[in-house]
UniProtKB/TrEMBL annotation:
Residues in the signal sequence: 1-31
Classification via InterPro entries: NLP_P60_dom, Papain-like_cys_pep_sf, Peptidase_C40, SH3-like_bac-type
Highest rank taxon of the organism: Bacteria
Keyword terms: Hydrolase, Protease, Signal, Thiol protease
Domain NlpC/P60: 224-344
GO biological process, one term: proteolysis
Molecular function as annotated in GO: cysteine-type peptidase activity
SH3b domain segment(s): 70-135, 146-208
Regions annotated as coiled coil: none
Protein name: SH3 domain-containing protein
Entries under SMART domains matching the protein: SH3b
Organism the protein comes from: Anaerocolumna aminovalerica
Family of this protein: Belongs to the peptidase C40 family.
Amino acid sequence: MNQNLTKFLKISTFCVGGLVLCSLNASVAKAETVVGEKAVAGITVPLERYSEVSEAVKNKEIELADQYNYTNLGIANVENHLNIRQKPGEDQKIIGKLPKNAGCTILETDDNGWAKIKSGKVTGYVMSSYLITGNEAVALAKKVGGVVATVNTTTLNVRAEAGLLSKVITSVPIGEEFEVLDFDDEWVKIGVDQDKGYVSRQYVDLTYELIKGVSVEETVTGVSGIRAQIVAYAKQFVGNRYVWGGNSLTNGTDCSGFVHLIYRNFGYSIARQSTSLSHNGTRINPSSVKPGDLVFYGNGSSINHVAMYIGNGQIVHASTTRTGIKISNMYYRNPITAVRIIND
């Protein structure tokens, strides 16, 4: 599989007018009939046949170059993250975070050092001095970008090995994005938090992307008091780094360390490891969670990841080294159980 990933990276970073992002998916080669988890006639053109589709890829790159070129591509040049504000000004409300090496489209700049940007689902203002632009941004994008798999079917099984008879370790919904670790013509190896698994290639679109900005605007409704305080505190650290075994909300921590440190700030003593943490508090059905409750995920029934529910169907969690602390749909993968720490 590694040779395919290397070829994908080379093709994806082929520049036309400063382009750094492109895809090899259904826009290049359409899938034919799909049965179960295996295509009857494949979904994408194998990368070995690049010469046959190079013109189509080139056209795709030219199209995208209008959006990502030397003048409006920006990459966050910070140690941790760059605050995205609602309006220009350091006293303005923070609505998102642009992590280190995350990419954005620069929409406009002003004479006071502010740039209006769009990254992911966030549009707002950042200090221009913290953005790498022009040729330097294009060169950096080739180094720090990665291959991402976006689910294009309602629900997709993630398997322990590459094969239809292999164990299903979790399921993921349409629209979710996962880091690609490797792939071949039929299977894609992805990272799901700290798990690794395989998905059928025809049910994902592969693209070469930079990290995106993350929104912190999500509001907590129907809750007050300690729950609202805990959620608000946790969201302050969105965009910060994931570090396995780390114990710092600002310099890096892992999934269980994140919720452990959040609760410790409010005087609660809970376990540091996710499996042990699942035995703290009161077990509840994931469908009954309130903001501040903990949601657990894993491989089959084996717990290895924990997140905090923040309301509106969303969680905040320390996910991977690539994405850091982020906000996700609670059902970005199947939750195993949930725990209530706050007795109210």
